[in-house]
């Protein structure tokens, strides 16, 4: 297995080879140290350790420093990630990286027109991504190419590899035995810039599959069942590792579906052991060489006998029923046989308005041909869909292949609308017109997420998640209580019929049709490439370099806001309509802390303005202070910055002149993002000191002259009535993080190193 095999056909000749030799060495070192059998996911994770000899390896406790093989970004998150990478001053990314245009395409009337409109509306973003990727050696998948995870599975995922992606469903690549983890843009920038990436050593949940799927039960039902068992939090901090004889009966794309939706139980990632079904998929996608290499390395891509798991569940596939999960949460799992009863009991709207199949979760050839088999049978009885029906191919390759092989015509003839190869309604990019906002209604999708408002921004929409088979059968009934396994439908001739079990080919017998060319490889000579950002753009802006720390900056700081209660990254940097400005730091900063509840007024978006003596909008006050060169601090309660890894929650306060964030405690990723942006992140040594902060206090952060790992800081507080307080603070900075602070940011430090 130490032959030179390219990680991807798309990058042949670039010198990006699969490095099983290094993995093998790492695994031997770790096995020697731990003296115990390893699970399969442990082998892959530890196979990517930066320092296998010395790193502290304790599942669920220590932090690992890792060297992922690749990075992938989707277009919404790539904008700020690339802007940050640019400010590091490096000439090229240090690991193979790709950017995928999939999130910004709105579904309105159908694929072709919707794509054309999106290219027009998002032109400046696409131009920026196309030129920036070309400049820095990044592969660029143009709008229309497909959804990030489908393209990764088709072209880049490989057994035993490790990938990070700026999208939560990156684990989809676990269907090809890759450890693939969704992360924030700041982490992606680190990896692109050759900095080891930190991950809490994952716990491992073993899911033993026995038996074999049959009839109406599909791979999706395995994860729907697992989500019901483990709940939305059950996978937190863990890798879900599938195993057992039942694995052999699943297609690689089916395994991808299961790993994809593992994100819904909060899992770090999900992964299947390497097997021949994966080999078949690799061969079908022209990667037979990788399949052969992986076969020779297979012992490292399976668990050791006797490996121990932190938690263990077992599922018998032979007795597994189809499930329907929802509404409003993906872990409310109901077996199909109980679903009609649940609809009535819970007063869920019985009429099915829309069924949506496809997306990154469920648009494989197998999924599409099984759905087509159902539609074909309905057509034979003269039926068209009763509900609206949409089909989202996951990639141009899938679209072209099902167009050639006839499934697309069958689905369209039944009344389905084929949408662009993009996220569309899965991420709320859906110009839905069949119901009014606020109108109670039901939809069913083969997607993965169904939180309130996710698909159509209508909080009254009851969104259910199921396999594409169940969705397709349901749209012919137009009724949520229909059970295709037991109930009949009336054909056009008035005769009743029951659907047969769906059937479909795992892989296209004539091979995949690649369709239109939608990939832009970075040019060999990149010296002349200019990154395009229109200076008048309201969506993109070059990221300024933050100024380095100067002694004195810590003196006489205003308290901008003191947060009461929960303060997630959404409170700090709101989503929704603001996502449009993700690439424009000045514009998006106008939402900073606007969701935070003030501890003084108990309302959102209220800051005491020292200039006027009144409470005013927080970002407006911060902007005024910035204009006056006046620095400020944020004060927070427990677990500040929980929720997501959104780096904007640290970038925006920094942009508006924030100097420090002081809280009772921080969510770890947010704390690390604050440090990377050169802010001081510290916690009250005595949490009750939080209560001593008043709206018009002026504070000085003492102890920065002796800022060192483990040192104590002091918050010297001057109250408006002339009284003072000294509040001891603690911090968790290590040596490299202290350098970020002094340099102004982690990227400043990199830029200085790059130009030295
Ligand atoms: Fe896109 Fe939905 Fe997948 S947003 S990446 S299709 S989860």
UniProtKB/TrEMBL annotation:
Cofactor annotation: [4Fe-4S] cluster
Location, primary (coarse class): mitochondrion
Subcellular location: Mitochondrion
Keywords recorded for this protein, A-Z: Iron, Iron-sulfur, Lyase, Metal-binding, Mitochondrion, Transit peptide, Tricarboxylic acid cycle
Pathway: Carbohydrate metabolism; tricarboxylic acid cycle; isocitrate from oxaloacetate: step 2/2
Catalysis: reaction(s): citrate = D-threo-isocitrate
Positions of the Aconitase A/isopropylmalate dehydratase small subunit swivel domain: 559-686
Pfam family, one: Aconitase_C
GO biological process, one term: tricarboxylic acid cycle
Ranges of residues in domain Aconitase/3-isopropylmalate dehydratase large subunit alpha/beta/alpha: 42-478
GO cellular component: cytosol; mitochondrion
Entry's EC annotation: 4.2.1.-
Enzyme kind, highest EC tier: lyase
Region (Disordered): 493-528
Ranges of biased composition (kind: Basic and acidic residues): 493-508
Note on cofactor: Binds 1 [4Fe-4S] cluster per subunit.
Similarity section: Belongs to the aconitase/IPM isomerase family.
Name by which UniProt lists this protein: Aconitate hydratase, mitochondrial
């Amino acid at each position: 297995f130490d032959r030179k095999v390219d990680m991807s056909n798309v990058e042949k000749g670039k010198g990006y080879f699969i490095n099983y030799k290094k993995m093998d060495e790492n695994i031997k070192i770790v096995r020697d140290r731990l003296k115990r059998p390893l699970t399969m996911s442990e082998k892959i994770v530890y196979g990517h350790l930066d320092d296998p000899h010395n790193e502290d390896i304790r599942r669920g406790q220590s932090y690992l420093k890792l060297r992922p093989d690749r990075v992938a970004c989707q277009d919404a998150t790539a904008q700020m990630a690339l802007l940050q990478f640019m400010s590091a001053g490096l000439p090229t990314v240090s690991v193979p990286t790709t950017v995928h245009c999939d999130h910004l395409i709105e579904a309105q009337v159908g694929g072709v027109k919707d794509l054309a409109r999106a290219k027009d509306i998002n032109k400046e973003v696409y131009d920026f991504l196309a030129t920036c990727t070309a400049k820095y050696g990044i592969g660029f998948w143009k709008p229309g190419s497909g959804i990030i995870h489908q393209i990764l599975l088709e072209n880049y995922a490989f057994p035993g590899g490790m990938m990070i992606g700026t999208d939560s469903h990156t684990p989809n690549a676990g269907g090809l035995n890759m450890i693939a983890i969704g992360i924030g843009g700041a982490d992606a920038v680190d990896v692109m810039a050759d900095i080891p990436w930190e991950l809490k050593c994952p716990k491992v949940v073993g899911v033993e599959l026995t038996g074999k799927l049959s009839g109406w039960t599909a791979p999706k039902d395995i994860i729907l069942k697992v989500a019901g068992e483990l709940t939305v939090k059950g996978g937190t901090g863990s890798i879900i590792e599938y195993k057992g004889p039942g694995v052999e009966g699943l297609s690689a794309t089916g395994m991808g579906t299961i790993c994809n939706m593992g994100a819904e139980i909060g899992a770090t990632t999900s992964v299947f052991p390497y097997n021949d079904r994966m080999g078949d998929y690799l061969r079908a996608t022209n990667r037979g060489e990788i399949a052969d290499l992986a076969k020779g390395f297979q012992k490292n891509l399976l668990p050791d006998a006797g490996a121990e798991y932190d938690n263990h569940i077992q599922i018998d596939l032979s007795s597994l029923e189809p499930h329907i999960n929802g509404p409003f949460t993906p872990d409310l799992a109901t077996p199909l046989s109980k679903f009609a009863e649940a609809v009535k009991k819970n007063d869920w709207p019985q009429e099915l308005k829309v069924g949506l199949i496809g997306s990154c979760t469920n648009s494989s050839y197998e999924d599409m041909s099984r759905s087509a088999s159902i539609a074909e049978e309905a057509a034979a009885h003269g039926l068209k869909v009763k509900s609206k029906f949409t089909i989202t191919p996951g990639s141009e390759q899938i679209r072209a292949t099902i167009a050639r092989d006839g499934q697309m015509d069958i689905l369209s003839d039944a009344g389905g609308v084929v949408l662009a190869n993009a996220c569309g309604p899965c991420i709320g990019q859906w110009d839905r017109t069949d119901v009014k906002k606020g109108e109670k209604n039901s939809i069913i999708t083969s997607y993965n997420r169904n939180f309130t408002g996710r698909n159509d921004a209508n909080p009254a929409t009851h969104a259910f998640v199921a396999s594409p088979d169940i969705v397709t059968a349901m749209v012919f009934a137009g009724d949520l209580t229909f059970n295709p396994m037991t109930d009949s439908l009336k054909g056009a001739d008035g005769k009743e019929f029951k659907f047969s079990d769906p059937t479909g080919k795992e892989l296209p017998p004539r091979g995949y049709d690649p369709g239109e060319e939608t990939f832009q490889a970075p040019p060999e000579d990149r010296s002349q490439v200019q990154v395009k950002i229109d200076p008048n753009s309201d969506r993109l802006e070059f990221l300024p370099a933050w100024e380095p720390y100067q002694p004195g900056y810590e003196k006489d700081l205003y308290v901008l806001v003191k947060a009461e209660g929960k303060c997630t990254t959404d409170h700090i940097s709101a989503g929704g309509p603001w996502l449009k400005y993700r690439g424009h730091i000045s514009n998006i900063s106008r939402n900073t802390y606007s969701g935070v509840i003030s501890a003084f007024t108990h309302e959102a978006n209220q800051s005491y303005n020292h200039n006027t003596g009144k409470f005013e909008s927080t970002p407006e006050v911060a902007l005024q202070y910035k204009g006056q060169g006046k620095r400020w601090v944020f004060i927070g309660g427990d677990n500040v910055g929980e929720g997501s890894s959104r780096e904007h929650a640290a970038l925006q306060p920094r942009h508006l002149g924030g100097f420090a964030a002081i809280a009772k405690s921080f969510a770890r990723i947010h704390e690390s993002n604050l440090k990377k942006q050169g802010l001081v992140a510290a916690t009250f040594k005595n949490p009750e000191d939080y209560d001593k902060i008043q709206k018009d206090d002026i504070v000085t952060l003492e102890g920065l002259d002796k800022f060192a790992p483990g040192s104590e800081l002091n918050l010297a507080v001057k109250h408006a009535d002339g009284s003072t307080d000294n509040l001891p603070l603690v911090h968790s900075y290590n040596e490299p993080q202290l350098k970020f602070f002094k340099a102004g940011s982690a990227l400043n430090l990199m830029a200085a190193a790059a130009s030295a």
